[in-house]
Design goal:
- The structure is a single chain.
- The chain is elongated.
- The relative contact order is 0.08.
- Helix 3 packs parallel to helix 4 (104-111) and helix 12 (283-301) packs antiparallel against helix 13.
- The longest helix is centred in the C-terminal third of the chain and has 31 residues, at 332-362.
- The protein folds into three domains: 31-221, 2-enoyl-CoA Hydratase, Chain A, domain 1 (Alpha-Beta Complex); 225-362, no CATH class; 369-446, OB fold (Dihydrolipoamide Acetyltransferase, E2P) (Beta Barrel).
- Strands 1, 2, 3, 4, 5, 6, 7 and 8 form an eight-stranded mixed sheet that branches.
- By secondary structure, the chain is α/β, with parallel strands linked by helices.
- Strand 9 (397-400) and strand 10 (407-412) form a beta hairpin.
- The chain is built from 16 helices and 13 strands.
Length: 448
């Protein structure tokens, strides 16, 4: 027999364990519920918001995350990333379809553990289409169809019904015929085990789940997520790229001031940072862009002329920009859109570079922006000393001490002058001759 003392301590231990379990259960019952809003068009800016809400809810021990959905659809790649976050979530996820969950919204709803719909709600119509409304290729439709099927299977919903939302060739007896894309009403979704219940509002959903007294935390988009949302929407990525690259070129024309370099780094940083947070770009794209800029810089500053390094740099830079705009799961329309955006960036940047060279060559006031006096160990010319009378030193020969792109510096009769080429690149240590003088503007040409 077990001794009374042992029985006593065993009883105390079991009582303590039951109290702890009851305490944990009470804590779960009184835990809060998080309400996440996915309304309007689904785009890349919602991806960091959805990830943050799900991770924070799991960390804080929320009872569930209610995903209120009312959307006409949106970007497939954004919907897939939100879908993956919902499938991986360590917290209960409940979709509340308030009116409509079309296309991308249908995939997000199917990824939740439970689905509740408002009266008069609809879910489906998820056929991928191009920007002009035409049907996508069979290959792309097949990929999205299987994605819907896998999501439905994972959540225990009828996979053929999910497939019929994407592909009009899928037939579901007694529900949808061939060549008819499937969209379910609330009652149909209930009949076919796609939805778990019908409610009129979020409050009614909480009451039906027995959480009417549970605190509800409404997750809002923070300023950083709003900024990502703004910076990843067209045409902001293209604007950031053009401003960033032209600002870096301005820094090349006028090194040392730092304003151009600062604006360039900020613009490119905002572009890459926003696309990285939205899941569109990774470190591979950043590495390609960095290599491209480094090769172009080496071509400009180190290697005379324009050859393989510059060409490879442009290719690497273009590839990094293209992949950043493309995203992880690009629709065919996005492939063309990203390519056209990169092409537009390079054309506009090239025009800006050409315009700056022409202005520096033919416009005195612009040329003076690149002809500021620079201090050097061997002496320098002040702004007053730089003003050379017309005809004075005209024809004098000297040597460049910096590359001319098109502005730089040279030594003439022991005097350092700020000079400018006639438009062509002139490397350092090149013999040059002064061919034109106008105030601060001293134009030179190679003597050989």
């Amino acid at each position: 027999m077990v001794k009374p003392q042992i029985q006593f301590w065993i009883g105390c231990g079991l009582s303590l364990w039951l109290l702890l379990v009851a305490g944990d259960a009470a804590q779960v019952q009184t835990s809060h519920v998080v309400l996440m809003q996915l309304t309007g068009r689904i785009d890349s800016g919602l991806v960091p918001y959805a990830r943050r809400v799900l991770q924070t809810a799991a960390t804080q021990g929320a009872a569930a995350v209610i995903v209120r959905i009312d959307t006409p659809g949106g970007r497939v790649d954004a919907a897939i990333q939100i879908r993956d976050a919902l499938l991986d979530a360590e917290v209960e996820t409940i979709a509340f379809i308030d009116k409509a969950a079309y296309s991308a919204g249908a995939l997000i709803a199917l990824a939740c553990k439970r689905i509740y719909m408002a009266s008069g709600g609809v879910i489906g119509a998820a056929a991928p289409v191009s920007v002009n409304g035409s049907q996508m290729s069979e290959k792309y439709v097949s990929a999205i169809r299987k994605l819907f099927r896998a999501t439905a299977e994972h959540r225990g919903r009828p996979p053929e019904v999910a497939e019929a939302m994407v592909d009009a060739d899928v037939v579901v007896p007694n529900l949808v015929q061939k060549e008819k894309l499937l969209t379910l009403t609330t009652q149909e979704a209930l009949n076919w085990n796609v939805a778990d219940g019908q409610v009129t509002s979020v409050d009614a959903l909480l009451e039906q789940l027995g959480w009417s007294s549970v605190p509800v935390e409404r997750a809002r988009v923070n300023w950083a997520e709003y900024l990502v949302h703004f910076l990843t929407r067209s045409p902001m990525p293209t604007i950031l790229l053009i401003v960033g690259l032209l600002a870096l070129w301005a820094e090349v024309l006028e090194p040392g001031i730092g304003i151009g370099g600062l604006i360039g780094v900020i613009s490119l940083g905002l572009f890459f940072g926003s696309h990285h947070l939205a899941g569109l770009a990774g470190w591979e794209e950043a590495l390609l862009m960095g290599i491209g800029l480094a090769l172009v810089a080496a071509e400009v500053f180190i290697i005379p002329g324009f050859g393989a390094a510059g060409l490879l740099g442009i290719v690497a830079l273009g590839a990094g920009l293209y992949l950043s705009l493309l995203g992880t799961y690009p629709a065919p329309a996005k492939v063309w859109e990203a390519g056209l955006s990169v092409l537009a960036v390079f054309i506009l940047v090239a025009l800006g570079v050409c315009a700056s060279l022409l202005l520096a060559t033919f416009t005195p006031w612009w040329g003076r922006l690149g002809l500021r006096a620079r201090l050097a160990p061997g002496g320098s010319s002040s702004a007053a000393e730089q003003i050379i009378p017309q005809g004075y030193w005209l024809g004098a020969e000297g040597l460049t001490v910096t590359p001319l792109m098109p502005s730089g510096a040279g030594i003439f009769v022991g005097k350092r002058l700020d000079i400018i080429s006639e438009g062509a690149y002139i490397p350092v240590d090149t013999p040059v001759k002064i061919v034109h003088v106008e105030g601060h503007r001293v134009v030179v040409a190679p003597t050989r």
